[in-house]
Design goal:
CATH class of the largest domain: Alpha Beta
Coiled coil: 291-318
InterPro entries: AAA+_ATPase, AAA_lid_NorR, Homeodomain-like_sf, HTH_Fis, LPS_assembly_LptE, P-loop_NTPase, Sigma_54_int, Sigma_54_int_dom_ATP-bd_1
GO biological process, one term: regulation of DNA-templated transcription
Low-confidence stretches: 265-280, 335-343, 410-421
Keywords: ATP-binding, Coiled coil, DNA-binding, Membrane, Nucleotide-binding, Transcription, Transcription regulation, Transmembrane, Transmembrane helix
Number of strands: 14
Pfam family, one: AAA_lid_14
Length: 562
């Protein structure tokens, strides 16, 4: 690309700088623009990654079509699929109309997916299919739709590290990375820093009708030596501060040092040095270690309790020792009385201990006793208390007993063991748990994500099996096939008093080492709520309860059959 063309691009998009890396990036953007190849832009936050997709779109055959810039990190996980791929009417609460989504609206155009590294794994799978086939299915729909969209993505995440930690799909990375573009950090652009400072100072002077600030040669060198962890965004903020707050218009290093942070800046993540051989890659591994240590403590406590019980039984069965006869009491010589002045003391009658009549405290005590008597089984505890599962769950949260409930299940539950006692770890080491898609006519958006996360956590918390993405010794897959509500009971006045919400999951269990143990089964859970309540208000709580019950059933089936 000749120099005239390069300057034309810079003027059109207000790009300031002459460093070789910046010029190379613009050259690559113009070369790739006429094609439909996907582009992945990688760089630190604040380096100006959002300019390159606009350059590519405006110089491509799609320049007359629509262009959308989407910040994937700012869209909640429960709604991002609907935003990108659209939804059908009634697919979830609040879906009153069909929506084509960005992929439908931007057909023939360009989509810029900023912060693509923040996408949930389920959304990454959908995006991969669009990139490979140009096809997608709206949330809650069954019809396959076609789209022709050019994808330009950007991220400030270390994708290689995210892949190793299981937070980003490797196959999606190679699809997006057809044309890689590495944006240089501001500290690598040399004299461009001074040019940008001059531009921002001039903009402030024109906007607020003030004299423009200028830098001395020493101040310029000081700017170029600074690390700029916030890149261009930070430089602009500091220039604006100097323009407004500085009384002098010629900026020296002494003045500049008052606005530039003097602490040791770094653009790298902190490295924790440890002399031990073991290191934690993420928080989940730390949690696993704590849980396994807790399991050991529980086993030690059970062993000590068994020994103590045995000692008590031995004491009961052992013969009583012979009783020594009591010696006769010798008479005591009378003591001569000593007359002294007696002092009267006030007698205060001890007050009996006041009984606690606080209803909240009594209710909390009853919950704790019910859970203890039923070995942490929430459903049995609710039946004994004469309340619904949902009411018990709400009161556990109200009184802060969720953690107590979790710990009690570790101590008392006979349903689970942390080491998966019925699983032969010499033969079975890995498990592959696929994401369960929604195959229901009525869909609540976050349900699939809640179920998939809970199911994977179930096996991570209660077994030593290593979860892998493919070729696991054991494999669990399936789909959510039913999610519906119906009237459960009718009041004396003739109207519906309670509504039952039900959820059914179809699960396929595959033992890749021994296929004669393969089986398929459906699991169902139900929950009720008062008809006077809005489903929107209780839906998350009810779905969470049903998901917990179904994943418990799936885990029990795994341990029982394998």
């Amino acid at each position: 690309m000749n120099n005239a063309e390069l300057q034309r691009i810079k003027q059109r998009y207000n790009i300031v700088g002459n460093c070789e890396a910046l010029n190379h990036i613009l050259d690559v953007a113009l070369q790739v623009a006429p094609t439909d190849l996907s582009v992945l832009i990688v760089g630190e936050s604040g380096v100006g990654k959002e300019i390159i997709p606009r350059v590519i779109h405006d110089n491509s055959p799609r320049k007359r079509e629509k262009y959308f810039a989407i910040n994937c990190g700012s869209i909640p996980e429960g709604t991002i699929d609907s935003e990108l791929f659209g939804h059908v009417k009634g697919s979830y609460t609040g879906a009153i109309n069909d929506s084509p989504g960005y992929f439908g609206v931007a057909n023939k155009g360009t989509l810029f997916l900023d912060e693509v590294g923040e996408l949930p794994l389920a959304t990454q799978a959908r995006l991969l299919r669009v990139l490979e086939t140009g096809e997608y299915i709206p949330v809650g729909g069954t019809e396959i739709r076609k789209t022709d969209v050019r994808i330009v993505a950007a991220t400030n995440v270390n994708i290689r590290q995210a892949i190793s930690e299981g937070r980003f799909r490797e196959d999606l990375y190679y699809r997006l990375n057809s044309i890689p573009i590495q944006m240089p950090a501001l500290r690598e652009r040399g004299e461009d820093i001074v040019l940008l400072f001059r531009l921002f100072a001039m903009q402030m002077a024109e906007k607020y009708h003030m004299e423009r600030v200028t830098l001395t040669d020493e101040a310029k060198h000081m700017l170029m030596r600074y690390k700029w962890p916030g890149n261009v965004r930070q430089l602009k903020n500091i220039t604006e501060q100097i323009s407004v707050l500085s009384q002098e218009r010629i900026i020296t290093p002494q003045i500049l040092s008052r606005f530039i942070p003097q602490d040791q800046e770094t653009t790298q993540l902190a490295v924790i040095k440890n002399n031990s051989d073991h290191s934690f890659e993420n928080e989940r591994e730390i949690l696993y270690k704590i849980l396994f240590e807790l399991r050991g403590n529980v086993n030690d406590m059970r062993r000590e309790m068994s020994q103590l019980k045995k000692q008590m039984e031995d004491v009961k069965t052992s013969p009583s020792p012979a009783i020594t006869p009591i010696q006769p009491i010798q008479p005591i010589n009378p003591i001569s009385p000593i007359l002294e002045d007696a002092e009267a003391e006030e007698y205060i009658e001890p007050t009996p201990e006041q009984e606690n009549l606080n209803l909240n405290d009594l209710s909390r005590q009853m919950l704790e006793k019910a859970l203890e008597r039923n070995n942490g089984n929430r459903k049995k505890a609710a039946q004994e208390l004469g309340i619904s599962d949902r009411t018990l769950y709400r009161r556990l949260k109200q009184y802060g007993l969720m953690l107590v409930f979790f710990i009690s299940t570790l101590f008392m539950s006979s349903c689970y063991t942390f080491n998966g006692a019925s699983i032969d770890y010499n033969k079975t080491k890995t498990i592959q748990i696929a994401d369960f898609p929604l195959r229901t006519s009525y869909v609540w958006g976050p349900m699939a994500s809640i179920f998939n996360n809970q199911l994977k956590d179930q096996y991570a918390n209660h077994t030593k099996l290593i979860q892998v993405k493919r070729n696991g010794d054991l494999q669990i897959s399936g789909e959510i096939v039913r999610y519906e509500q119906r009237n459960k009971s009718v009041s004396s006045e003739g109207y519906s008093a309670q509504t039952e919400l039900s959820m059914t999951v179809n699960v396929r269990f595959t033992n890749n080492a021994k296929h004669d143990e393969d089986f398929e089964r459906q699991f169902t859970a139900t929950s009720t709520y008062e008809t006077t309540q809005s489903l929107n208000a209780v839906q998350e709580e009810l779905v969470t309860q049903m998901v917990k019950e179904i994943t418990d059933q799936i885990f029990n089936a795994t341990v029982a059959n394998w």
